[in-house]
Amino acid sequence: MNVATPTLPDAQTVTSVTHWTDRLFSFRVTRPQSLRFRSGEFVMIGLMGDNGKPLLRAYSIASPAWDEELEFYSIKVPDGPLTSKLQHIKPGDQIILRPKPVGTLVHDALLPGKRLWLLSTGTGFAPFASLLREPETYEKYEQVIMMHTCREVAELEYGRQLVESLTDDPLIGEMMAGKLIYYPTTTREDFHHKGRVTDNLSSGKVFGDLGLPTMNPAEDRAMVCGSLAFNIDVKAILEGFGLTEGANSDPQQFVVEKAFVGDGI
Ligand code: FAD
Ligand code: A2P
Fold it and tell me: What number does CATH give the domain 107-256?
């Protein structure tokens, strides 16, 4: 395997790796002392390519801004240029990390509201793994609803364990008590809640299940992260509820970011 050598200026050391399924893993790396980021942002990370040039991809930072390490939650694409190699990293290996965080899934890009909806599929959970561990999330909202949909139950496990761990978190535990609602669903395996995020929103099922009013622009804010098709479908639904898309430069009622760039897009 080709990994970055310690002589590279942007090299960081892997501290732990967890494999969740044959398609998903997470890992933690050392954090450059100078790196400041806002919970929810992404950076470019990668390995040295066979041609001696860095092979970099966008990755959401899954850890919160206050964490002394950085965490990432990753897909394993069997013949993916980066992840076919990245999936084999071990503690002590080095990766390249360009310390230039950017992104729209940040609190500053939303107007104040009562409820925050975090809507994701697959590895789109990653930026929310950061925001769920961010105190500002609970300072700003009365309720935080985390919807995450995967094909199978095993693909929800990283998110499930992360949400469970928040209860005992010394920083977040007390702040999030009674505020965080976790609503995971599957689409291709039996589970206590089923169905696409889009279907559960547009049918009103999630509002009925949780005893919440239908989303409205006065009270609800949302952050969206999934495939391009997911993002397009969710955006249309949120706009149907009267919410307007915002950005860092123009805070509004919801923001969207791609979890990955799909084939041919
Ligand atoms: P690529 O050549 O990049 O991708 C090959 C194909 O694999 C793609 O065409 C697509 O069909 C599929 N694919 C790629 N990424 C995913 C994915 N995450 N889920 C499902 N299918 C995928 N990936 C992560 O795993 N975790 C992240 O936190 C993450 N954050 C991202 C943030 C942004 C803003 C963007 C644009 C992408 C993000 N990605 C993330 C995707 C990531 O940049 C790479 O595409 C991914 O690591 C695969 O790299 P690769 O070189 O192996 O394959
Ligand atoms: P489904 O099983 O009905 O396709 P994937 O693994 O393909 O990235 O999908 C992750 C999850 O996102 C799956 O549960 C999938 O549901 C769901 N999904 C895929 N496309 C959309 C979409 N356009 N709108 C809502 N959910 C979607």
Answer: 3.40.50.80
Task: Tell me if 101 sits within 8 A of 42, measured CB to CB.
Answer: yes
Mutation test of ligand 2: which of 73, 74, 151, 194 has the most ligand atoms closer than 8 Å to its C-beta?
Answer: 151
Is the predicted pLDDT of residue 8 greater than 80, yes or no? no
* Domain 11-102 of CATH type 2.40.30.10: yes
Find out whether 85 and 1 touch, Cβ atoms under 8 Å: yes
Q: Could you read off the pLDDT of 100-120 as tens digits, one per residue?
A: 999 999 999 999 999 999 999
Residues lining ligand 2, CB < 6 A? 121-122, 149-151, 187-188, 196-198, 227, 229-230, 233
Q: Is the pLDDT of residue 265 over 90?
A: no
Sequence ranges of the domains in the chain = 11-102, 107-256
The pTM of the full predicted model, rounded to 2 decimals, is 0.96
What is the rounded radius of gyration, in angstroms, for the C-alpha atoms of the chain? 18
